[in-house]
Amino acid sequence: GQAQIYLDNAPSEVKELAKTFNMMLSRLSQSWEQERQFVSNVSHELRTPLTIVHGYLQSVLRRQKNLTPAQQEALETAALEAERTIRLLQHLLDLARADSGHLHLRMEPCVLNDLVAEVVNMAEKYSDRTIKIESTTKSIEVRTDYNRLKQVLLNLIDNAVKYSEADTPVIVKLNQQGEEAIIEVCDQGCGIPLQEQSRIFERFYRIDEARDRSTGGYGLGLSIVKTFVEGMGGTVTVRSRTTTYHQTSRLNKGSVFTITLPACSLLE
Ligand code: ADP
Fold first, then answer.
1. Is residue 216 classed as helix, strand or coil in its secondary structure?
2. The Histidine kinase domain covers which part of the protein (predicted)?
3. How many other C-beta atoms lie within 10 A of the C-beta of residue 199?
């Protein structure tokens, strides 16, 4: 008898539950939105003064020719830390924007080879590493947000340089397969253990503080890469072997980050 009564009453109870649940959900999403807004505001407010501080530091470093080595070093450290923090704030801003669907990507047709050449030039200046480009086709055309894709590739090349030895090559490979443009950023560095490979795209995830500390990131670079690339209708994946696993051979060690983007024709 009781089970029957219970069942009779169930629909309205379920309705009540659903109502409560929906109310909770709307409160939750309200507070998520507030949190995003907060992160976005704070990042923005901090970025502006820090950019000014960084600008002044740079100008002192450029103009003052008679700094003592200690002063020079102190100013350089300050400038570097400011730069690092500005980058963090930019990343937080971008992620907050992406979360709230306001990451307006400016998609336009462009030649991938030119974009990559530009990025590699920039990266070579920053890092003093020779970065090789290998391309199967002279001009691969994609529809993308030019500046964001540059940022994505800079992040990947930056990592490739950071996590490999100075005497090993970093290679960017370009390739087109049917409707897909493929960019691979390859290094012969320390590699990424299999069990970590899916996690490195998470926000603030760094494999190992001991191993990563000296490289000075925040574990946001790859989550930005993923957010942007997926926003552009593409994918990003990683293949990697760790150095310890492949101690005896220089083949196959290191990491390969692969980006695919829908190719297009500029004539369309
Ligand atoms: P970070 O700014 O800390 O480098 P990322 O999001 O760019 O953050 O990368 C997350 C983690 O993935 C890094 O801390 C690093 O341990 C690992 N990683 C990324 N790229 C490479 C690479 N090319 N080789 C080895 N490890 C890498």
1. coil
2. 41-265
3. 13
Residue 23, φ and ψ in degrees, nearest 5: -65, -45
User: Tell me, what's the pLDDT at 101?
Assistant: 84
If one residue of 127, 157, 213, 222 were mutated to test the ligand 1 pocket, choosing by the most ligand atoms within 8 A of its CB, it would be 222
pLDDT in tens, 147-161: 999 999 999 999 999
| Strand order across the 254-262 sheet | 131-135, 170-177, 180-186, 254-262, 235-241
Q: Round to the nearest angstrom and report the end-to-end CA distance of the chain.
A: 71
- If one counts every other C-beta atom within 10 angstroms of the C-beta of residue 58, the result is 14
- Angstrom CA distances, 132 to 50, 150, 152, 157, stand at 34, 16, 17, 11
Q: ipTM more than 0.85?
A: yes
Distance between CA atoms of residues 171 and 153, nearest Å? 12
Q: Where are the beta strands (DSSP E) in 41-138?
A: 107-111, 131-135
User: Is the shortest distance between the CB of 217 and ligand 1 below 6 Å?
Assistant: yes
pLDDT tens across 73-125, in order?
999 999 999 998 998 999 999 999 888 888 889 999 999 999 999 999 999 98
Taking the CA of residue 224 as reference, the ligand 1 atom at the shortest distance is: 6
Q: Whose CA is nearest to atom 13 of ligand 1?
A: 206
34-80: pLDDT as tens digits: 988 999 999 999 999 999 999 999 999 999 999 999 999 999 999 99
- Other CB atoms within 10 Å distance of the CB of residue 246: 15
Contact between 219 and 154 (Cβ < 8 Å) = no
